[in-house]
Amino acid sequence: EPEVTQTPSHQVTQMGQEVILRCVPISNHLYFYWYRQILGQKVEFLVSFYNNEISEKSEIFDDQFSVERPDGSNFTLKIRSTKLEDSAMYFCASSGGASSNYGYTFGSGTRLTVV
Amino acid sequence: AQTVTQSQPEMSVQEAETVTLSCTYDTSESDYYLFWYKQPPSRQMILVIRQEAYKQQNATENRFSVNFQKAAKSFSLKISDSQLGDAAMYFCAYGAGSYQLTFGKGTKLSVIP
To answer: Which chain B residues contact residue A48 at CB under 8 A?
Structure first.
C-alpha cells in the first residue's frame, strides 16, 4: 500500500536554529499538507499546497514557516528560527483529490524538539 | 468556524467487547465529510472510516461502524469485538470542501485483556 514517508522521525534543535522537515508524498497525489500536533493536544492544520503554491494556510503558519516542493518527489516544511513552542509532532499528508473530502494519507510524523 | 468535540478523553473496553466513541460537530454546511482516525503509540495517523454527509447509510469497515445523526450533528464510532491492537488515540475529523480537516481533541482507548 502506498505510503507517505517523513524524515527524520525525530529532530532535536536549538532555539533560533532553522530546521527542514522532509516528506515524500504518494507519487500520484497532487495535494500536499502539513499538520502539527503539540503533545497531548489535537492535530492542527498548517498549510496545503497544490501546483507549486500554497492553496490554504492557517494562522499558525506565519512568516517563520515556508513550504517547498524542490523536486518531483519531496515536499518540505522549513521553520526559519525555531521557538520552544514549535516543539510538536509534524505530520505530512497527501491526497489525490482537491478537497478534504477524501481523507488524506498521513505520514508517520517528525517529532521536533526545540531546546 | 467548524468545531469538532470529543467529550470522552479516555475510554476502556474489555477485549472482545463493543465500545462506542462519541463525536459531535458544529457546521453550517450541508455537504461535508466526517472521518475517524486512529493514532497508535507509533503516532502515525491511520484513516479508520469515512462518512459522506449526503449519504444516510452509516459507513462500515469490518469491525468499525459509525452512527451518523445529521440533524443532531453527531458521529459516533462503534468498535465491535475489540482487540488489543485497537488500543490507540481516536480522532474525529471534519472536512467540507476546503483543504483543511478540523480535528477533535481525541479519545484515548484502552483495551483490557
So the answer is: 99-100
Q: A41 vs A36, A107, B106, CA distance in Å?
A: 10, 18, 8
Q: Do A103 and B33 touch (CB under 8 A)?
A: yes
Residue with cell 526545540: A114
C-alpha cell at A27: 507519487
CB contact under 8 Å between A42 and B42, yes or no, is no
pLDDT tops 80 at residue A32: yes
Q: What confidence score (pLDDT) does residue A39 get?
A: 87
Residues 34-63 on B with a CB inside 8 Å of A are: 35, 37, 42-47, 50, 52
pLDDT of B43 above 90:
no
A59 lies within 8 A of chain B by CB = no
- Please say if the pLDDT value at position B97 is more than 90: no
